[in-house]
Amino acid sequence: MRTIKFILQKEFRQIFRNRAILVLIIFMPIMQLIILPLAADYEVKKINLSVVDHDHSPYSRQLISKIIASGYFRLQGYHASMAEAYRLIELDDADLALEIPSGFERNLIREGEQQLLIAVNAINGTKAGLGGAYLADILLDYHHGILLEWTAPTRFEPMPIIEVLPSNRFNPLLSYRFFMVPGILAILLTMVGGFLTALNIVKEKEVGTIEQINVTPIKKHHFILGKLTPFWVLGNVVFTLGLLVSWLVYGIFPQGNILAMYAFIWVYLLVVLGFGLLISTYTETQQQAMFVMFFFMMIFILMGGLFTPLDSMPAWAKAVSGLNPVTYLVEVMRMIMLKGSGWGAILPHLGAVLGFAVIVNTWAVSNYQKIK
């Protein structure tokens, strides 16, 4: 215990000696947590729409007005042919083109149906998919409204009408910030902890102090524990400041058991810090450690369920995500902060992360080469 105390004193002195890095460790995650949720907006608006109206009837004008009034589309202009509309799509000046054929109003009145052409600029897959879905919903709603106008009122309803009343649990207003902020906080905590520890032992190798440490009677597990503990404390500080920012800026406060969330964070930090130290034992320079950590960090983030739902991934990707600690952290953060979950709900995730912590840190200790 006395040996670990001396190692901790050395590590904390090194951290506080470089005040610029200390400020960056605290300041940068806070600024990112403030800025990123404001920019990472899942709601697609201002979709440029080009309209080709061959009918020029009251019904076609009513349809166009309904589309623009939805707030999702921005009318790029009226055009005489689809060739002009396609030209705008090729120039990226339009995201969608809607063609209303001649006889639109006549076919609706006589036959009760009419086909419309929607051309979508699919280079931006997300914007194209959502824009096309928005436009299709508006067209269906318009058609439903027309049918209601034509239906003569009768004493008895000829067929039952199903009315859907949605109830959004845990996020009543469907605010994307409530969905993104816990996930972004999880990613920032992972990046801060992972990169700092990945560079730690490598820095000792580059300046030459690792040889001095190796000839001392310090045991390997004492050395790894002394390297891990200061950043574990800093990780908890960063996480606490992140919770304060989430509460003060976005009004998001954990609805579940806060102690359970901190217990999970304590174990999770052992995983990500131990993983960084493991990389540090394999690399010889800080540049190597940065590139290796960046490689794994990209996999952790993109396959962690923050941007892409796990259920939409192929089977092999879902299997790989089960080995990704970020997957468990993002899910637990949302469960506790939004859903109000407690110990019972997070125990399976806590058990998995605890297993990762034991494996990674044992691996880091055994892989650290020390002169006996």
TrEMBL record:
The chain crosses the membrane at residues 21-40, 178-202, 231-253, 259-279, 291-310, 343-365. It is a multi-pass membrane protein. InterPro entries: ABC-2_transporter_component, ABC2_TM, ABC2_TM_bact-type. Keywords: Cell membrane, Membrane, Transmembrane, Transmembrane helix, Transport. It is found in: Cell membrane. Its main location: membrane. Pfam families: ABC2_membrane_3. It comes from the Bacteria. Residues 128-371 form the ABC transmembrane type-2 domain. The keyword Transport applies. Belongs to the ABC-2 integral membrane protein family. PANTHER family: MEMBRANE COMPONENT OF ABC TRANSPORTER YHHJ-RELATED, MULTIDRUG ABC TRANSPORTER PERMEASE YBHS-RELATED. This is ABC transporter permease. It comes from Parapedobacter deserti.
